[in-house]
Design brief:
The structure holds 2 protein chains of 2 kinds. Chain A is built from 8 helices and 12 strands. By secondary structure, chain A is an alpha/beta fold. In chain A, the strands form 3 sheets. A 6-stranded mixed sheet of chain A has the order 6-9-10-3-11-12, with helices on both faces. In chain A, helix 5 packs parallel to helix 6. By secondary structure, chain B is of the alpha/beta class. Chain B is built from 8 helices and 18 strands. In chain B, the strands form 2 sheets. In chain B, strands 1-4-6-8-10-12-14-16-18 form a 9-stranded mixed sheet, covered by helices on one side. Classes of the chains: A alpha/beta, B alpha/beta. Chains A and B meet through helix 2, strand 7 and helix 3 of A and helix 6 and helix 7 of B.
Chain lengths: 246, 380
């Protein structure tokens, strides 16, 4: 569903991503690991459509469409969802209002019936339970005053409500305690089907062991230098990245 | 006729002062063209047919100022021109030449009282200002809401003076809403707040050619509280200049001032607030916040929230922010499938929502929400 071919990305004069090739098919969960500053978040931002980057070379296709020509919202409407590493707080914007607007925009685009207020409240409450958020969340402003863990759970809640086809999880496990990590991982696993694909960016094995990914890739200095399965992540956990450097 | 004699004296006295008037507070007028305003006629009142359309709960007493002067001399002497500071020409003009006006009395121990006023004041000459004046006397243990809805009519050149007296244990929600793109107007408003009394004040100015508001709030007894909430929405060449003066005159007094502006096109807003905590006002609390969102590079804001603290035993904070729509917030919303234009409108609404949510009165809330939504829908 997502095909990245020979992607080169920079900011100003600096090259960040170099010759990236990656295919994510339906039903697959890919993990990207790597040191800080190697371009992991740049890759997720490029897929989500954030501005401010130069695409110097390469292509990304999503369901056979040129992703790089799609607007940010069209990407979302077509089923791409990114769980943010640092979700922005929006004081004054009620969480439920925000999510209903989002979900209904996407449902409308996909020619599904939009949720009424009553229907949405019901499904919102149901999914909140799944990620361990209590009902008072419905009255709060988006990410405003949320703890680190609450922010990440709120991202997963959004994923569960939006029901995307391709999910980018940018350090969704960062800042989570052990219990929260389990809840978030269970939330992700509950949403995995043969029909959707995942790209998880992480520094730690601890979430990988809950998610059992199909592929693990290592990004170093803007390049994918190694790909493997879950065992690769365990090796990195034990030995670090030094052995991959020439 | 004693009252009339007094009015005549007051008029002559004011006229004498106008002729020799010098500005006492230059900062307060620095950013608005005072000479331009003073160039109009303030002494030739035009009479609108129905200047005020008033709906009120039954127990509220209402008198025209003409009747107050004629028939209720003691009230006239007690409440007319007693708290409004004689510090600018426009107040003096109003005192000398006021024409439209009412005195409202909210009875002791009354509950859930309301006054809804549609302000239809219009001038029939482009050179003349009208002078209108309202007095509100909120008696002890009263609870009431006043909603002043200033209607959008053709020619608005108003010079208004409002005086609010809150006696002990009274709670007042006082809401002024205007959406008048053509208005040139000056408002001078004073409020005296007594023991255990709370004034929840809301001022919503949507557009306006040239608006100058001066608010003078006095917290005069223990547990006097003023929650002052303001919204300014400006586009085109709108110019809105707000001066808010809050004086803490007794210990255990509280003031919270929150004013948010959204400015588009070539509009300009001025926010100058001066909260003073006087000596012996221990355990007082004061906060000031002014947030401004600029939608255009040509729009501008002068923000100056000042705290003057003459006591160590107080809690105070103040802050001012000015910025554009948050690009990260827009990206976040777009990445959730919300179109850019809709995301912007939602963010503008969110910027105001903490102030709008404070409005308790349903009728006022409905009117104001509709007007804000309509302004946001059309702004770019």
């Amino acid at each position: 569903m997502l095909k990245i071919n020979n992607l080169n990305v920079g900011v100003n004069d600096k090259n960040i991503l170099k010759n990236i090739n990656l295919n994510i098919n339906k039903g697959e969960l890919h993990v990207i690991m790597g040191r800080n500053g190697t371009g992991k978040s740049t890759l997720s931002n490029i897929i989500a459509g954030k501005e401010g980057y130069n695409i110097n070379k390469g292509k990304i296709s999503y369901n056979n469409k040129n992703l790089l020509e799609m607007s940010i919202e069209d990407r979302a409407l077509s089923g791409i969802f990114m769980s943010f590493q640092y979700p922005v707080s929006i004081p004054g914007l009620n969480t439920m209002h925000f999510l209903r607007t989002s979900v209904n925009s996407i449902r409308k685009y996909q020619k599904k019936e939009e949720y009424s207020s009553g229907e949405f409240i019901k499904i919102f409450k149901e999914k909140m339970k799944l990620v361990g958020l209590d009902e008072s969340f419905a009255r709060r402003s988006v990410n405003d005053g949320f703890s680190g863990g609450e922010k990440k759970r709120f991202e997963i809640l959004q994923m569960l409500l939006i029901e995307p086809k391709l999910v980018i999880l940018d350090e969704t496990d960062s800042g989570l305690d052990i219990d929260a990590l389990k809840i978030v991982s269970n939330g992700i696993n509950s949403f995995r089907t043969n029909d959707n694909g995942f790209l998880l960016i992480t520094h730690y094995y601890r979430i990988i062991k809950y998610l059992n990914p199909d592929f693990v890739h290592v990004l170093l200095d803007g390049k994918i230098v190694e790909s493997g399965d879950q065992k690769l992540a365990l090796k990195l956990e034990e030995e670090g990245y030094g052995w991959l450097e020439k | 006729m004693v009252g009339l004699k007094n009015k005549l004296e007051l008029k002559n006295n004011s006229i004498n002062k106008i002729n020799t008037f010098k500005f006492l507070n230059k900062e307060q007028w620095k950013y608005t063209n005072f000479n331009y305003l003073a160039g109009f006629n303030f002494n030739k009142n035009n009479i609108s047919k129905n200047p005020f359309f008033i709906k009120k709960s039954d127990s509220i007493e209402i008198l025209s100022l003409r009747d107050l002067i004629k028939e209720k001399k003691e009230l006239y002497l007690k409440f007319f021109n007693k708290i409004i500071p004689q510090e600018n020409k426009f107040i003096l003009y109003n005192t000398a030449y006021f024409h439209n006006g009412y005195y409202f009395e909210i009875k002791k121990n009354s509950n859930n009282e309301y006054i809804f006023i549609d302000n239809n004041i219009e001038t029939n000459s482009k050179d003349n200002f009208t002078n209108d004046r309202l007095i509100f006397n909120f008696n002890k243990n009263s609870k009431s809401t006043v909603f002043l809805n200033e209607k959008n009519i053709k020619n608005i050149k108003n010079n208004s003076v409002y005086e609010l007296y809150l006696d002990d244990n009274s709670t007042v929600d006082f809401i002024i809403h205007s959406n008048q793109p053509n208005a040139t107007k000056i408002l001078n408003l004073s409020a005296n707040i007594n023991k255990n009394s709370t004034l929840n004040f809301y001022t919503i100015n949507i557009s306006g050619e040239l608006i100058k508001n001066n608010y003078y709030i006095s917290l005069n007894r223990k547990n006097s509280t003023c929650n002052f909430n303001g919204i300014g929405l400006l586009d085109g060449k709108n110019h809105i200049d707000n001066y808010v003066e809050i004086n803490h005159n007794k210990k255990h007094t509280i003031s919270n001032l929150n004013y948010n502006n959204i400015l588009s096109d070539f509009s300009k807003a001025i926010f100058y607030a001066k909260t003073t905590i006087n000596k012996k006002c221990n355990q007082s609390e004061a906060s000031q916040s002014n947030k401004n969102m600029l939608l255009s590079k040509s729009a501008s804001i002068q923000s100056n929230p000042q705290l003057i603290i003459n006591n160590d035993d107080v809690q105070c904070s103040h802050g001012s922010t000015t910025g554009e729509i948050d690009a990260d917030a827009l990206f976040y919303m777009q990445s959730r499938g919300i179109k850019l234009e809709q995301a912007k409108k939602i963010l503008l609404n969110s910027f105001l929502s903490n102030l709008v949510d404070e409005i308790n009165d349903e009728k006022a809330l409905k009117t104001i929400t509709e007007q804000i939504n309509s302004w946001i829908k059309n702004v770019h």
